[in-house]
Amino acid sequence: MGEFKSGFVTVVGRTNVGKSSIINRIVGEKVSAVTSKTQTTRKNIKAIVNRTNSQIIFTDTPGVHKAKSKLSEVMNESAMKSIPEVDIIVYVIDSTSSKIDEKTLTKIKEANKNTILVINKIDLITPSRLAEIINEYKDLYEFSAIVPVSASNNKNIEELICEIERNLKVGPAYYDIDEYTDQTLRELAEETIREKALKLLQDEVPHGIYIEVTKMKKRKTQKEEKIFDIDATIYCLKDSHKGIIIGKQGSMLKRIGTYAREDLEKMLGDKINLKLWVKVKEDWINDLKMVNKFKSDEG
After folding, report:
1. Exposed/middle/buried for 2, CB within 10 Å: 0-12, 13-18, 19+?
2. Taking the domain 5-170, which CATH number applies?
3. What CATH number has the domain spanning 185-294?
């Protein structure tokens, strides 16, 4: 056995390139919200991977995008801020997009860290197109490695982990080996509820929602079973959105709650009693008090 290695790895790239999906594949636990909608990840979430000879601490950052609100500005700031502060950068691109993300590439060049280029969604392109992308990016920066993957098919994920391990330095385990995220249970609950809402709601609603867990209490039932009581509020921007989130006779809210409860029960290993409310908070995405909750506290 070699010496134990450890390090901090940030995963960066445009919105919707599959950063959270890749991290969830690597960790083997649901740490980040995963949906097909852009801007799913709103703040930097740590995921911890413990291997026989290493500990890798990942930060899944918000996707870089054109800022249209105070929330967007804070998300971009969090993503960019994480780049210089880590040991390894994993730069994820979408193989089906021809646009080069110049903004993130510039930051990577400035940071001058070991950077692994990950070309995701290779199941959607031909081998010849993949070869073209590799040649194109080889000329843009001296990457430590280029790893083509398919997060949806779990293809080459183990190769990616091994490549990250190769680039780690000898170091201690920063977290207990039983941990897989530094998020609190409250934050995990909020992320899970938001993920389900994003998956089920229409396109115009999701990014105007914000989840706040107002109660999280563990108790025992009369049969001595452990149960979590979780109360959460879904904030939205408009009355019309509130109607969509609740749905006909509460059907949509019930679906969001059911899917979130099922996921949380798997995560926490206990029964969940989840209650959801919906409230309108107009223009909260430009309310600094609420938006600052998404700021990275690193550095």
Report:
1. exposed
2. 3.40.50.300
3. 3.30.300.20
Structure tokens at 43: 């703040």
Whether the per-residue pLDDT at 169 is higher than 60: the answer is yes
Residue given tokens 């249209």 in the structure block: 68
The amino acid at 42: R
Domain residue spans in the chain? 5-170, 185-294
Q: What is the pLDDT of residues 130-166, one digit of tens each?
A: 999 999 999 999 999 999 999 999 999 999 999 999 9
48, 59 contact by CB (below 8 A): no
Percentage of the chain modeled with pLDDT above 90: 30
Q: Is the pTM of this model over 0.70?
A: no
